[in-house]
Amino acid sequence: MKDLTQAFLWGAATSSHQIEGYNDKNDWWAWENQGKIETGERSGPCTDHLNRFREDLRLAADLGLNSYRFSIEWSRLEPQEGQWSDEAFDWYFELIEECERLGLEPMLTLHHFTLPLWMAEQGGFAWERSPELFGKMTRKVVERLGSKVALWCTLNEPMVLTVGSYLGKFMPPAIYDPEKARMALYHMLKSHVIAYDLIHREIPARKGRWKDNPVQVGIAHNMIDFTVTRSGSIIETWLAEQLHQFYNMTWLDAITGRAQRFRFPLLLTQAPIVSEALGRVTVDYLGINYYTRAQVEFAPKWNGLPVNIGFAKPGEPASDLGWSIHPLGFQKMLKIAGQYRLPVYVTENGIADRTDALRPGYLKDHLRSMIKAQQEGVDLRGYYYWSLLDNFEWIKGFGPRFGLFQVDYQNFARTKTHSAELYQKLIEAHRRQGGDPSSLGVLLESL
Ligand code: IFM
To answer: What is the mean pLDDT of the chain?
Structure first.
């Protein structure tokens, strides 16, 4: 068995609906066509990755990356309940084989925000059958693609999905319904546990380049550093702590079997308990997605929560989405993840920066924070920049540009950014020192 400490994974992450194009059987496509994207855009051909995946993977490999995180599109694999598309499975198999040829170890995400329309119409993850259906889909993916995949991510940002769909109205079905939110949290945890067990139990004989790597299953969890707007404010400190506990901690506690506290004061009654996850660690690693902090302001209102949340103070350096650049929070969140004593992967970190002016600094500062977290004891195994390419940023449309490679949406040409060059140089510098996780510190000199 390969020693896991041998190679640090340098990667980039993407998701199916944000790059592939013409995913016309999912809930987002339907929502876009109801005119719900802020700009009125639709994902349409997107970045045309469906036809250009070989070119895109080549770009990733040329940067010196040794891993690639992508998601499968459930609605392509199972466009109607129980009807499976061989063509779609073959496409993902080819993608995985191309990764292998190029030395990019795949990290396969089973669910990244989109749902087949047939499932969304029944209530998505608020529907009681969702864990069973998620299990069936996982079983097929494991059977068809599992022989070549060691790294699995069951759910991407389940908290963001819950808040966006049932509380904050920025994802379909965009309703305010705390009851559905709590049932979605419950069903997603159940789905995760089913998938965790199933992958470990049913993975087929392993083949190819990474066949000796241990199977690792985790989730990609979004963390935000909640800070106060007025320093010293007791009420804001309390509110920020409540948000931190709910948003950052509940999933980490649930998947490590410590507690299930899917409950936010004033909003959710406690979600039902998933007994299969009680007192049991159902992940082999923690995947952390980190972008920014949130500033919590006490704001009494006639109805709703007495709180406003801002992402950057006026004049503070921020991304094109107005998210403040706050690398200290990254270190802090990684340290929190590290306390669970599991391997940690940074499954996403990046910035929307159209001109690529802020991204080099963002990348350096965040890598510095990651290295500090490692020096403070966090068992870091990999870093995936979000994203390989510019892509469809959900309700914001195509405006925000996160890519290491810019995409021209007229002719789909890809252009390498300075940040991509910088990332490449940093990876090379790390490899020259042996490339193992413990030698990450040498990177500091190159930063
Ligand atoms: O684009 C998203 C991604 O789908 C999930 N994590 C955050 C990214 C930037 O908003």
So the answer is: 95
Determine whether the shortest distance from the Cβ of 15 to ligand 1 is under 6 A.
yes
CATH classification at residue 67: 3.20.20.80
Return the residue whose CA atom lies nearest to atom 9 of ligand 1.
393
Q: What is the pLDDT of residue 6?
A: 66
Number of domains in the chain: 1
Relative to beta strand 307-310, strand 344-349 is: unpaired
| pLDDT of the residue at 1 | 37
Tell me, using a 6 A CB cutoff, whether residue 289 lines ligand 1. yes
Q: Is the CB of 386 under 6 A from ligand 1?
A: yes
Query: Would you tell me how many other CB atoms lie within 10 Å of the CB of residue 88?
Result: 18
- The range of the structural domain enclosing residue 214 comes to 4-445
Would you mind telling me the total number of residues written for the chain in this entry?
447
CA 188 to ligand 1 center in whole angstroms: 18
Q: Which residues have C-beta within 8 Å of that of residue 275, sequence separation ≥ 6? A: none
The pLDDT of residue 4: 43
Structure tokens at 274: 């998933």
Residue 348 in contact with ligand 1 by CB distance below 6 A? yes
Q: 6: exposed, middle or buried (C-beta count within 10 Å: 0-12, 13-18, 19+)?
A: exposed
Question: What's the predicted TM-score (pTM) here?
Answer: 0.97
